[in-house]
Known about the structure:
Order of helices and strands: HEEEEEEEEEHEEEEHEEE
Strand content: 35-45%
Number of helices: 3
Largest sheet: 6 strands, antiparallel
Number of strands: 16
Shape: globular
Amino acid sequence: MAITSVSDIAAAMSAAQRMRFVKNFTAPKGAGYFQSGWLGTGFPGPGAAAVTFGGGGVHQCTSVTAGALGQANGAVKNWLARLQASISQPGVLYVADRLWACSGMLGSTTNTVVTAGNLPARITDNGAGCEAWLEVYAAGTVITGNIDVNYKNVADAAKTSTTNPTTFMSTTPVIGQMYPIPLVSGDTGVRSLVNTVTYAAWGTATFGITILKNLAQIEIPVANTGLTLDWSRVLVEVPADACLFFYFLANGATPLYALGTAWIIDK
């Protein structure tokens, strides 16, 4: 049965999964930088660094991947219908579906992603709204130069994104730091990665590529305060087996925690 009225949502809320979370984020680079909560301690527990590219392991992520929020699939369809969060630092907390991830990229070389970045079956719109990000698994020394990421867009056309991430990551990335890989003008999503990622001198940093799809965000303007978004501001479908995780747009360089509850209804 689909959602056809506010009454449907109200009725489903009485049986909602209340997914509580407490995530400790490692120190961001500073104000205006993105920080992943994937490796952070708390609940859910920390995820592991993604499988090394070309390692032959599984790169797609699901609700049972270590580090995921871990909601159960609904009998009909899951929806995020309410979101509450309190954060020890002002900023923006994002809830995203972590679709695919690899790690193990290091140094000055051309890396071939042997296991191509194909999206899991729960993505049925050819990658519309899906984004590729750099995610740092080990802090590094000075980085310089461009990074080229080859991907296919929603029309299955091959594209290459060329950018200099030092603009948004600084020259010495910290563990957990994230950087969005910009799409070629006119593109609306990443359908898959294609073969190679090329980058210049990245020192000792170890990083990888993560493909995600944003589902919701909550803005906390003052440290140690909370905010609740009801269905009118946050209602969004959560695909079956979604690997829900958190990342943060920081307002400082100190470690932080985020705690709250995500209400997930089945309708």
